[in-house]
Design goal:
Elements lengths: L2 E8 L5 H11 L5 E8 L5 H18 L4 E4 L4 H8 L4 E4 H13 L15 H17 L14 E5 L5 H12 L3 E5 L2 H6 L4 H4 L5 E5 L2 H12 L7 H17 L3 E4 L5 H12 L6
Parallel strand pairs: 1-2, 1-3, 3-4, 5-6, 5-7, 7-8
Helix pairs in contact: 2-3, 5-6, 6-11, 9-10
């Protein structure tokens, strides 16, 4: 039997940092039904009180104190959250005092700084990377492959598009992707456009049962989603990877973040922004 626990990610900005750090910690604990809620832009006393009230309500409903993962930088608003009765995990407070001691200076305590570092120089670069991923998605065009940092390939629904977008958004990588369709798989050969860029190529593989489940959610009871079709496509894709010495990552049981990290590690690509 799982134990229900409400979790709040609270921030004076988007909450992405609080979510990322909090979720990394939560994955270490099994047997819990974590109901997650993100409270973004808590940047006034009124909003802080509203957030605290939501924490109190969730704690009363669950019969146990809610968890709060916070990147709230303002002491006043942080104190209001603490008074909610939730269990507070304050990422800034945990590290800032030690950093102040180490660096010999006080922090600015300015809200939203994590989203403002080198913003002017990096913002346009990230937008370009995201547009590149979108414009070069699913083989829509191949004429910009010379510009690409990496080209992902794999059967349909193996994780190509979300991985490309994550690489673009988080690392500024120019990522394209090309689908291995039935025509390619029947030839047992790497498509010519990919052979011309083999040094940039990275193959995605996936467990056929997992692929069958994913495809069935989209197009149930179809040949496309059948287990036999999934097994055949994955087998032939892996044969193509092996015969062409294409680097491969298995996406079956790992998150998009982990897939991206594995690809960066194996290719030696570095964060651009």
């Amino acid at each position: 039997m799982t134990t229900r626990r409400t979790v709040f990610f609270v921030s004076d900005r988007t909450g992405i940092t609080a979510e990322a750090l909090g979720l990394s910690l939560l994955t270490q604990f099994t047997g819990f039904d974590f109901k997650k809620r993100t409270l973004s832009f808590i940047d006034s006393e009124e909003k802080a009180h509203s957030a605290a009230e939501q924490v109190r309500h969730a704690s009363e409903k669950d019969g146990v104190a809610a968890l709060i993962f916070s990147t709230q930088i303002t002491d006043e608003y942080r104190d209001i959250l603490i008074e909610s009765g939730g269990v507070m995990f304050d990422f800034f407070e945990s590290f800032i005092s030690k950093m102040e001691q180490t660096l010999g200076t006080e922090s600015s305590h300015a809200a939203g700084r994590s989203h403002g570092i080198d913003r002017d120089s990096n913002y346009s670069g990230r937008i370009h990377s995201i547009n590149f991923a979108l414009n070069n998605d699913d083989g829509a065009t191949t004429k910009y492959y010379e510009e690409a940092d990496i080209i992902l390939t794999g059967v349909s629904r193996s994780g190509k598009t979300p991985t490309c977008l994550f690489l673009a958004l988080q690392y500024g990588i120019l990522a394209a992707n090309y689908p291995l369709i039935e025509e390619d798989l029947n030839t047992h050969k790497l498509p010519e456009i990919l052979r011309n860029h083999k040094e940039k190529l990275f193959g995605l593989s996936i467990n056929p049962v997992r692929l069958h489940k994913i495809r069935s959610e989209r197009r149930g009871n179809s040949r496309y989603a059948s287990l036999d079709q999934c097994q055949r496509e994955v087998r032939r894709a892996e044969e193509i990877y092996h015969s062409n010495k294409v680097r491969v990552v298995d996406t079956s049981q790992v998150s998009i973040e982990e897939i991206a990290t594995i690809i960066l590690d194996k290719t030696g690509l570095k964060r651009r922004y």
